Amino acid sequence: MSLTTDHSRAEVDGAHSHGPQSDGAVIPQSDRAERATSFDVADFAVPNGREEEWRFTPIKKLARIFAAEGSSAHLGWTTELPAGVTVEEISAAEARDKSVFAPGDRTSAAATSLSEGAILITIPDEFSAADPVIVDLAGAGEDVVWGQILVQVGANAQASVVLTHSGTATYSAYVSVDVADGANLTFVSVQDWDATAIHLAENALRVAKDATLKHVVMTFGGEIVRIGVNAQLVGEGANLELIGAYFTDAGQHQEHRLFVDHAVPRARSRATYKGALQGEGAHSVWVGDVLIRAVAEGTDTYELNRNLLLTEGARADSVPNLEIETGEIEGAGHASATGRFDDEQLFYLQARGIPEAEARRLVVHGFFAELVREIGIPSIEARLLESIEAELAVAVGKSTGDDQQ
C-alpha cells in the first residue's frame, strides 16, 4: 500500500494545516512554539506515551533514561581539527550560558543538568578551511551517558563540522549550534551505532542574519534512535537546509522530528528526509513542523519526506505540519510519500539485462545517492555511501528472498 500527501508550494492566505497520520486521520497538534522549555529535568514529567511528541516512541525501553539519574559513564572521543578551530571541555554552567535556547523535553534537559560538562567547538570570525572539523564519539557499554556538545560559529566563517557515533551506549545528548551573521556551516551527525545502542538527542539550531546552515542527519545503526531538530531563524536572509537519510532494519526504531521556527521576515528553509526500511518490526517516524509567525513575511519554506519499504513487516509514519500566521509569504508546502519498489524502474533495468538483485540495489542506491551528495564533503559522502552499500547488501537479499517465496 502506498500512502501519499503532496502539497505544492503556494502562497497561502491565513492557512493552518496539520499532516495526516499513516491511516489518513488528522492529528490535533498544539503550537510547538508554546511548549515548555527548561534546563531543569524536574520541570518535565516522565512521558507515558499519550503525549503527542512521544506517542510513536517505544517508551517502555527508555525507563533508565527517563529516570534521569546521575551517571559517571562517558563516550570516548577523538578529534580532527583544522588550524584555528578550538575544542575544549567546559562546565555544565558555562554550557547553559552558551546554549542557543533551553531544552524542550525531559531527556535533553537531563543531558544538560546531569552531564558533568560539555564539549565546546569554537569556529572564529572569518574562518575558512576546506577540511572539516571531525569529532568521533564511541560508546563501550550500556550504562546511561549524558552528553552536551556546543558549536559556535563566528561571523562570516565558512566551516564544516561532523559528529560520528559508533559502538554501543545508552546515550542522551543536547547539541547546540549557533551560526552568526553571514556565516556558512555544514553540520553532519552520523548515527552508525551497534545494534544494541539507544540514542536520544535534541539538536538546537539558531541561524542569524544572512547566515546559512546545512544540517545533515544520517542514521543507520542502533536499536532506538530519536533525533529532534529544533531550529529558529532569527535574522533576515537566514537560510536553513535540513537533510536526512535513514536505513531502518528489523527491530529498529528510528525517529526524526523537525521544528523550524520562522521568527523573522524573508528567511528560507528546506527539509528533505529519505528513508528505506526492511525486516519485521522496522519502524521509522518522521515529523516535520514548520511555524511561520505573523512577523515572518516573505518566508519561503518546503519540507519533503520519502520512505521506501523494501520488505513486508516494516512501517513508516510520516507527519508533515504547517502553521502559518501570515499570508504574505513567498511559498510554503510539504510532501510525504511511503511506498514499495517502483515496478517500472525494476522492469526498465531488468529489460536491459540487469539481474533483479542488482536492479533493486541500483534503485535504492539512487534513492539515497543524490541526497548524500548534497552534503558537499567528499570524504564524508564516501563513508556514508559505504554504509548505505553495506545496508543494501542485506536489503537486496531479503527483498529477493521475499519475492521468491
UniProtKB/TrEMBL annotation:
- Tell me the ranges covered by the SUF system FeS cluster assembly SufBD core domain, including all copies: 142-367
Q: Where is this region: Disordered?
A: 1-32
Give start-end ranges for the coiled-coil region(s).
none
SUPFAM superfamilies given in the database record = Stabilizer of iron transporter SufD (SSF101960)
**Biological process per Gene Ontology, one example term:** iron-sulfur cluster assembly
Q: Where is the composition biased (Basic and acidic residues)?
A: 1-16
The highest taxon in the source lineage is: Bacteria
What family is reported?
Answer: Belongs to the iron-sulfur cluster assembly SufBD family.
Cite the NCBIfam families for this sequence: sufD
Report what the protein is called.
Iron-regulated ABC transporter permease protein SufD
